[in-house]
Design a protein that fits this description.
Elements: H1 3-21, H2 23-27, H3 33-59, H4 63-81, H5 98-120, H6 127-149, H7 160-184, H8 192-222
Helix pairs in contact: 1-3, 1-7, 3-4, 4-5, 4-6, 4-7, 5-6, 7-8
Amino acid sequence: MTVFTSLLIVHIGAGFCAVAVGVLPILTRKGSRLHRLSGRVFAGFMIVLLVCAWAMTALRPDPYFLGLSATASLTLFSGLRVLGRKRPDLSRRNRARPLDWIVTVATLGIGLLTVWMAIMGYGDAPPQILIALAYGALSMGGWDLWRFWRPLDWPFSPRLWAYEHLWKMVGAYSAVLSAFSGNFLAFLPPPWSALWPTVLFQSLTVVWIATLIVRSRTRSVAA
């Protein structure tokens, strides 16, 4: 058995586990013990999955693996790191560190590289999928750079960290589900077999966050 095959087996196994476990943090009450525990387990499976993904990408470079690994890595990394940046208005310790800048800038670079490879026709994946992956990396990376540079400017609020955490962790889940669907749900036509989880979950996330914001403002007015 080759090194690549071994990595692929572990990668697929961790992916199946992440898809199964990742539903729990989404459905459970936020802040509850089950939410935190299932979130840690999901993050653990994602870390194993991503380590294998980067190793396989190094062994067999491919635009799809590169773009997906970069986007999923940033969503998970930033979704976890934002828990340590809840209130930058109260403490400078709650602001971005050099590691945050390095990872984000590197991901932006990979996003631009993925766009270039899609335009030039590199790899076997449809260009729509590569552009979608690049969009995820560039949009989230651009957002994070703005938040790092101007942490107290628009749209900062005391609850912004919660919305960011929700958006990014659901994004990480949709990334692994996209990979699962694109590879195993063969009855769906490409590129939608890989794109539907991103479209569905990102749309749901927008509605979810908008609902939370409206509820928060309603409570503030009522108080």
